[in-house]
Every structure is written in structure tokens, then in C-alpha cells.
Amino acid sequence: MSDVAEVKLGDKSVSLPIVVGSEGEHAIDISKLRSQTGYITLDDGYGNTGSCESAITFIDGEKESCAIEAFRSRSLR
Asked: Which domain holds residue 25?
């Protein structure tokens, strides 16, 4: 069984999958949160949200780096 995050909202509980990114970071997949609960999330400033899944890129805004397949963006300059 894969890892899940249990979210309790009032008397209702939902299980949301945990996904692991290519750099080992863990995330809670909330793509079905609204349909299962009617709730949405708020991430003021979009500072803690992954926008998509990608098999060929990784962007780390805090480190100002971007990996494209096997190449680091700094090596492309």
C-alpha cells in the first residue's frame, strides 16, 4: 500500500496520496480534495505548491536552479 495523508474535516476523513518527486521531495496529491470534500486549499504567494508533474524537468525556486533531463541549466549558459 502506498503512503497516504489522512485529512479530517469535521466528521469526514479523506485519504490523499503521497507522491515522491525526482529530487526526493514528498508532496500530498490534493487533486481530488475538492471533489471529495468541497474544500480547496490556500497557498498565499504560491510558495509551497507544485504546479504539475514532469518526467524531464525539475525547478527549485529557492536554489534558483532548473534541471532539464540530465543537464543543469547553469551548464547551458
From this structure: 4-76
